[in-house]
Structures are given as C-alpha cells and as structure tokens.
Amino acid sequence: MVRRKPIDQIEEEDHGGGLKRTLGLWQLTAIGIGGIIGAGIFALAGKVANQNAGPAVLASFLIAGVASAAAAFSYAEFAGLIPKAGSAYTYGYAVLGEFAGWFIGWDLLLEYTAIVAVVAIGISGYFGYLLGAVGINLPPWMMGAYDPTDPTNGHRVDVFAIILCLFIAFLLTRGIKAAARFETIVVGVKIALVLLVIVVGVFFINTGNYHPFFPHGFAGTMSGAAIVFFAVFGYDAMSTAAEESVDSRKHMPKAIIYSLAISMVLYVLACLVLTGMQYYTEINPNAGFSTAFKSVGLPGLGSIIAVGAIIGILTVLFTFMLGVTRVWYSMSRDRLLPKVFAKTSRKHRVPTLATWIVGIVSALIAGVVPIGEAAELTNIGILLAFFVVCIAVIVLRYKRPDLPRTFKLPGMPVVPAIGAIASIWLITYLQPLTWLRFAIWFVIGLIIYFAYSRKSSLLNPNSKHHAAEVPPPTVPDAE
User: Fold this and answer.
1) Hey, which end of the chain has fewer CB within 10 Å, N or C?
2) Sign (positive/negative) of CA torsion 323, 329, 331, 336?
3) Residue 113 — very low, low, confident or very high, per pLDDT cuts 50/70/90?
4) pLDDT for the residue numbered 155
5) What are phi and psi of 242, to 5 degrees?
6) CA distance 463 to 467
C-alpha cells in the first residue's frame, strides 16, 4: 500500500503507442482557463448570491481563490517535476504511495465526471432562457432534472445537458490536436464575453444593492465559498494533459499560474457587476447575468450572454472530460484498473473507450441530478485531492531536495500548508449528504483496490504484469 513509483525512473511512457504531444503553452493556458471560467460565472455565481452569500459572493470567490492558489503553486511544482498524465493521482502515487495514489485517482474519476454533469446542467439553464427569449417554449419535463425543492416546475430530465455531454465525448475522440484548437478558439470568445459583461454592466451598478454585504453572516459566506470552489479550479484537470504537451516541464507550471490569475481577476469583477446590478434576492439563480441585463432594459445583451454562456461553458466540459479520461488512462496503464482502458486508438491516440464511458455516465448524471447537489459532490473530492497534493509537495521537497525542479513554489512550507488547511476547512461546510455519497464511492473503491488493484499493480512483484510490461496496444477507431 505504501510502495511508490520511483521519481528518478518516471519517464513519459509513450513508446509510440500512447498519447500524442501537440500542446503548447497558450493551448495549455486556454485549457486551464476553459476549465476555470464557465459555470462559476454563468451559473453558480447567481445561485450562491441568491441563496447563500448575497453580495458577499465576492468574498466567497476570494476565499476559495486563496485556497486554490496555494494548491495551484503545489500543482505547478509537481507539473514541472513529473511530466506525466494523471495529475494528483500520479503525484500522490510517486510521493505518498500506491494507496494514496489510488485514493486520489478513484476520487477524481467521480469528481471530474460529476463536474462535467454540473457544467452541462449550467449551460442548460441558459439554453432555456434563450429559447424563452425568442418565443420557443419546450415542454417543461425536458428542461431540467427533477428538483424536490421545487417540484412544481414540471422538470423531469435535462435533455439538452445529456446531448452536450455526448457531444464533448465525441469531440475528444477525434484527437487532442483538433479538440485543443476548438478549445482555444472558444476560450477566446468566452473571455471577450466576460469582458463585455463587465464593461457594460459597470454602468448599471447601484451601490445600494451591496447593502447588506453579508446578509447571511460569515457562515453564509463560507458556505458559498465551499460551493464556488468548484469554479476556481480547472488547472488541475489541465495538468492531466502533461504527456500531450510539447514541453511539459517548462510550460505546465506557467500555464497553471497564468490560467488561475487571469480567471480570478475576471471572477472578482464579474461578481461586483452582478450583485451591483440587481439586489441579491432578485438574482435569477439559473441565468443570473442574462436576467440582470434584462432587468436594466438590455434584453438583447441578455440573449447574447446566454448564447455566449452556452458556447463558453463548453470549454469546461472539455477540460474536465479530458481530465477524467487521462486519470483513468494513467491508472489503467499502471494496472490499478483493467488495461483495456489504457488502449489508445491507432489514428488519434486517445483512450476512446474510457472517453465514451465518461460521456455516457456524465450524461446520465446531468439528466437527473439537480445542479446544487451535483456541485457539492464535486467539491468534496477536489478539496481532498488538493489536500493530498499540498501535503505531498511538502514531503517531497524535504525528502528529495536534489530533484531538478523547473518551478519551486514560494513560501515553503507555509503556502502548501495554507492550501491543505483551507481545503479541509472548506470541506466542513459541505452538507452531510455529500459526505455520505462520497463515503459510498470510497467504500466501492476500497473493495476494488483490495480485490483487484493491489494484486494487478505493476509495482507488485507477484503481478503477471511486473516482469515485462508491454506498452498499451492500439485499437482501430470506433466509427
């Protein structure tokens, strides 16, 4: 359970049959921004302002951002040191041992898949607004998952969210180069849209809407931070693409820091505009910015925002579906999961089978689970992953100071310790039901680990894979 993959021997494990290196610095940064900016602005900001924190949603984002920044520095150091797919799973495996790596990898399989579902639900809310604005009213049953807190809305299944999840799965099976090109273009559109919201919205701010700033006190602000933490990571999923970067040791740390810094500036400004334009109790939790501009007499801009939100949030779907498939690929390559999931297609060199399974499962979650419950489920897992990475970077810095690091996080060990403490602190503000769901997933993972993974692992000297492991085979593309 504590056997570790030797860092000195970690290579990229390509062998001509693995992942394909095509991503440069700005493509990586675009993937990071694509994962960070999306549902946080266009879906969760309005929901948290309306239901949890009021105007203090700004403080919620800042608190979550500080915790995320401390973890981002830890990820950046690891990304420059271990240029492998798998992100937190690989880092935990190399430093803390196999069981810690398994725990984080199994955790991320659920969390990233749930994130894809949450984001698809967030897009669906804007899709409904847009259809209503042009006079199209689809049957309520297909416009959202059943929500027991609002059973009168007629929602039963979110058809549009299901379609989106399957579309992104298809896009990722076409190859990382084509998919990354799509991601970069759409991220540019999304940033332009957020800047439009900020520049126009600032002229309609009523400072009276900021009072009271903390309507639900510090507890409401922290509860909001625990939810919007979902919106201030994404670079971790981007780091799973290390083996698809042309120079991951040099580019990955920069891309992590650039993407978080750009995103946090935009988040803060957008929250100021949203809560300044409307009193927090009047903000629409499903399509906050669109309805805010409609309330000040700019329904046309609200429709533009809805279109942009739908396009822009696609990048979040892309980033996290990419992340979960690369974690799954890495765990299967290490034989902690069946090796069939480490097979890559001959033409595009992507894990096609894993990608389609993630697409279908995330579509099912998006179709039947309300956004609030799905968002909390994602946060507990990511916060635990951040905790492990922050602890691991401290351990490795003092155990192996000799290792060549292209980036060294500042303030060791204070900065990663802040990240670890803040992650655990935010977890305590999540709902007990979220803990229960995560515990069930963890128990399932324990059964799989002790029944299969521990015995099949490449690091197990008694495993049939241990002596002479061949590179993952390729299979023809599924048409």
Assistant:
1) C
2) positive
3) confident
4) 62
5) -55, -40
6) 8
What digits encode the pLDDT tens for the residues 160-211?
888 888 988 998 888 777 777 877 888 888 888 889 889 999 999 999 999 9
With tokens 């060990």, the residue in question is 413
Exposed, middle or buried, 211 (CB in 10 Å: 0-12/13-18/19+)? Answer: exposed
Check: CB of residue 204 under 8 Å from CB of residue 277. yes
> What distance in Å separates the CA atoms of residue 444 and residue 38, rounded to the nearest whole number?
31
Give me 265's structure tokens. 């500036």
Q: What residue has token string 């579906």?
A: 321
CA 251 – CA 267 distance, rounded (Å) = 24
State yes or no: cis peptide before 413, omega within 30 of 0: yes
Length of the chain counted residue by residue: 479
The tokens for 334 are 């290490």
What phi, psi does 14 have (nearest 5°)? Answer: -90, -60
pTM tops 0.70:
yes
Q: Tell me the two tokens of residue 218.
A: 């510090």
Q: Note whether 315 and 187 are within 8 A (CB).
A: yes
